[in-house]
Each structure stands twice: as structure tokens, then as C-alpha cells.
Amino acid sequence: MKTDSTSTLERLSLETLRGGHPVGTTGPRVAPGALTIGIVHFGIGAFHRAHQAVFTEDAAAASGDTRWGILGVTGRADSVVRQLQPQDCLYGVLQKGAEATSLRIVGTVRDVAWPARDSEKVVATLARATTHIATLTITEKGYLRAGDGIDLGLAVVQQDLALIERELLGECDLPASKSPIGLLVRGLARRFRGGAEPFTVLSCDNLVNNGALTRALVFSLVEALAPGAGRDELQAWLAASVSFPSSMVDRIAPATTAADRAEALGLLGLRDEALVVAEPFTQWVIEDDFAGPRPAWEEAGAILTTDVTPYERAKLRILNATHTQLAYLGALKGHATIAQAIADPALRAVARSTIDADILPTLDVPFGLNLEEYRDSVLERFTNPNLPHTTLQVGMDGSQKLPTRILGTAWDRLNAGHRPAGLALTVAAWITFVASTLQTDGPTLDDPLATRLQQAVASVDAAVTEPAALVDRFFALAEVFPPEVSASTEFRAAVVDQLGEVQRLVRTSA
Ligand code: CS2
User: Fold this and answer.
1) How far is the centre of ligand 1, averaged over its atoms, from the C-alpha of 252 (Å)?
2) Domain containing residue 375: CATH number
3) Which ranges constitute the DSSP H helices of 153-308?
4) Which residue has the CA at smallest separation from atom 6 of ligand 1?
């Protein structure tokens, strides 16, 4: 049989890297073979690989503590397994600054699992005494929340409940878990039945109070288990021995393109199917509330603190909110990337005035941070021309992002007696983007609520002739608009007004 030895040899792996790699590329900073798995990460996409995995490798390099290799769990598709497994889970981070590009190989991910096939591996690893932490980047929609709890009306959640009950009874050979939180709780149930060692669940998603939220979701799932058969004991153990710190994560890591892969190939001389791309800036603020041991992330530059809230609010309300505003206004104006959108003087002015008028007044100053400087550095980061972060990528899942990024801030301003025109503009831009995406033959709307949104814009005539009716249909989406926001006649009037402003801005030449 003819083997394709060239392509095998050309791909990044421990073997192909053994001979060293070209000057200008670096890593791994710790010998991958020396690491044992101590972390299970749910949602091993580009962001985790460019962020927590890098911090974790740097912490191991600085401290010499090799207990923190990562088992990465992918979401729905096994494509990440196919990218990483043939490369011994090695991958490059192509760091693109405004001026310089560099390539670093990271080796801290030691194994990878796809729940549809490998649930047992994930559960067994979560239960092992040498595993101490689960980290999560499963995106807003991955939490399957309904209010403060998990959505018990979903079939996948009901299936996971049944599996957790069987796990608690000690049954073997169970089918695959269906949701990240369901799989996590199943692993915690096995851990509880085993040595019951303490454990930490660390959310790294862009959500308000992500630790407390994750805890509430886990407890709501456990609460829904059939009484008896260990439910109450599991609950008591979770309350006593499992902690859920919050964290704020930040690094812009757009989807990898073919051009990025070609650039990395040129630098490394090896093919890297798992390459990720990121800006130089990176930040991680973690609530120091761990039930067991943790990596020395502070030695890698992370901030360990008792209160993440001021950092998290500043980041969600300034960076993510402005990203979202630029994404919709930019996409409507034909700008393909965030860098193009922020280079448009009209959009830059709107972004800046929204931050100043509507956002900064709602924020407490995090220790050691000047919010005006933070604002300027965020806007500067968006201008990076070498980081083609598309407006469509940032614009996806708007129904999940708006409540966290925009509507809480809007409510704070309304409550303080102000009309948040800039935030209303973002909502109006989202409505216009959703309506125009659903009404034209272009790209489909990438949003888990696409069907509900389709119903909201179903009547094209009303949308064109009566902006107020369109706004009312959107405000009726209780999954997006909290009751206090949708009941605000002031905010409704502001969004209706800003629909006209969106049209004006879109017509302004860049
Ligand atoms: C972005 C974020 O896609 C998005 O919605 O706003 O992914 C953003 O790039 C990161 O939060 C930066 O840390």
C-alpha cells in the first residue's frame, strides 16, 4: 500500500518538532511529555488555545509544576479532535501585532475528547484524584440557561438528567452526555462516588458573574434529579467541596484563515491544522477561590483577586459592547472586519461617544486601572489591521450577547434617569442587521434564536413602514429583553429613534 509519507512528516507533531524549529518560532516552553492531566477544559476552540492554555504553559514553565496538562473537550463536531490528535495536541499561536508577527508552539493540551464518542473518557478524567479543575469556554449559548437555571424544558437536558441519575447509581457503559453542563455534572457525580476530593469549576466565558451563574446552573440540574439515590448527598458535597470562582478573560482571537495557515507554514516549515491566531494583548483576572490546588497562573501574569466584578464589568461593557456595536453597524455598512469598522470616522465617533456617555458612568474603577486609558487601549486594539476579525463573526449569536453586553448597562442608565442613546443605537443596529439578514439572500443568521427572530420580522411591510411595530416585536422576546427593559417606554422610544440613526450612519460614506 502506498503511504503518504510526505504529508505525515510535514505536519506538526512531537516527532517532526524533535529536530528543532526555525529561529523566530518558539515553544513548547515545557516538555509536553512531562505534563500530567490536571485540568479538563470544556469548549476547546481557538480562544482557549490562545488564552488559558498559554497561561497554563507559562505557569508550568515559571513554577516547574507539571500537574496541569489539559484534556480538551470539543463542542458538537469532532473537527478539533481531527486537528489536534494527529499533531500530539501541539499547535501554534500565530501572534499578530500591528507591526510584528511571531509563532509559538504550545504543548499544554495533552489530550482531546469529543463527547459524542468520548463521554466516558471525560467523566473518568473528571473523577480522577489528580484532576483538580474544569475550565469552561462554551460560549453564552452553551450554558442552556433559562433565567438563573438550566433550561429543564430541553430534551438534551432531560436526557442528561437521566444519565446523571444512572451515574449516581454506579451504572456502567452509559451513552454519551448531550450538554457540557450535563457532562460536567455527570463527572462530578462520579467524583463524589469515588474519593470525593474537592474540585473547582472555573468559567471563562463572557458572562456577568460567570462563576455564580455556573454554580446556579449546576445546582439547578442537580435539584431536578429524582430524590433519593444520592441526590441530596451529591448536593451537600457540591456545596461543601466544589468552588465556582468567576473570571474575566481577554484576548482577541479571530477564526483562523487559510492565509494564516500558509503564513505559519512559512515560519515553521510544518503544516499546522490546529493553528490559532491572536493579538499580542492577553489578560486573565481570576477570583482566588479554589477548592484544591491550581496552577501558579499569577506567575504567568494572571491577576488573582478576591473580586473580579469591576474588571469583568469594565471588559464586558467597554470591549465586548463596543465590539458588538461595531459588528452590526460595520456589517450594515459593508465593512468586513472590525478594523475596517473602527477606521470609519463616523463609526469610531459613535463608539467613543457611547462609551463616554452611556458606559463609563456605570462602572466602578478596578484597582490599578484608569477607565479612560482602558477605553483608549481597547479602541486601539480594534484597529489592528493584521487581525481580520470579521464583523460577521463578532455579530453571531447576538440574542445571547445583547443581554450581557448592552441591556444591563442600558438598565443602569435608565434607572439613573438617563436615556442611553448609544446603547439604544446598538440595539437598533442589531434589529436592523437581523431583519436585513433574514430578508435577503445573503449569509444566514448565525443565532440560536434564528427561528424566533424570523417570526419577529415575519411581516416585512410593517418593518418598513412602522419601526415602532418592529421594535415591539423584538422587545417581546423575553429570552433577550429582561422585563424591566422591555417595559421601559423611554428605552423603546430611544430604540425607535435610533433605527433612523442607523439608516443615516449606513448611508454616510466611510
Ligand atoms: C467578541 C469576543 O466575538 C465576540 O463577540 O466580542 O470574542 C472578544 O473578541 C473577546 O471577548 C476578547 O477578549
Assistant:
1) 6
2) 1.10.1040.10
3) 155-168, 180-193, 210-223, 231-241, 258-268
4) 320
